[in-house]
Amino acid sequence: MNNSVTMDTALLSQQLQYVSCELDGGVAQMVLNRADKHNAFDEVMISEMITVLEHFALSPECRVLVLKANGKNFSAGADLNWMRKQAKMDFSQNLNDANELAKLMSVLDKFPKPTITLVQGAAFGGALGLICCSDIAIANERASFCLSEVKLGLIPAVISPYVTRAMGQRAARRYMMTAERFDAQKALELQVIHEINDDLDAAAEPIINALLSNSPQGMAWVKSLLSTLEDGVIDQSTLEHTSERIARIRVSDEGQEGLNAFFEKRAPQWPTTTDFHAATNNNDHNASGQGAK
Questions:
Q1: Biggest CA pair distance of the chain
Q2: Which of 28, 168, 216, 262 would bridge 62 by S-S if both were Cys, CB 3.0 to 4.6 A apart?
Q3: Are 145 and 185 contacting, i.e. CB atoms less than 8 angstroms apart?
Q4: pTM for the complete prediction?
């Protein structure tokens, strides 16, 4: 492990108030650490989460990110004192505030490495945004979920694209308008989570091991590819784009290593300097605006 990266992560964690982070064996952890407030969001926690995500996005040692929380509940949503501040802000101030939350969701959604979120207890409001922005989500049996904004005369606007993508338009209409709680089994049916397991760390372990064995570039490109296909349109542009993607990755260093390792019946030796941003840098489909989100 690169000692300078390890020290940077340790130093960063010491500077944070409501979030902690660590990096070991290629696995990064970002932990919500405000258990006394049920890990409720405020502007400080949002800023810290963005900082940690940007740090690990650039870290060559980070291969997988695990998002979890200390305490009884994953997150109760918005902090009450933060909401009191928002009620006194003018439109411009509220817009700036909302933009930061939107940035957090976008940074997590576009994080260039696989992300796993482990959910215990309550996951309300913005917490559902974090879960739905993650690639994989596992919850325990007592997890409960709620999009409660309309009870306060508000709407789940910033998280709505991610929640709707996960559960679908019809389900989003129901749960965003009724603000009813739903349990882990319903969250599984709605595809908000992928698995229910009371031992969250044990459930995550085989998934992490599988991810660590895969091509870092391949997984990053999968995320970028899928983001261009969200509108569901399959036209000539889509055919050209997907053909270009597979051709380009076949001739890349990691593509060549993966193919050669398969035919030589050996484990692939993935490069340690993967350019995780190559998928978006070379994404002609996104550059044209077709299918971009």
A1: 65
A2: 28
A3: no
A4: 0.90
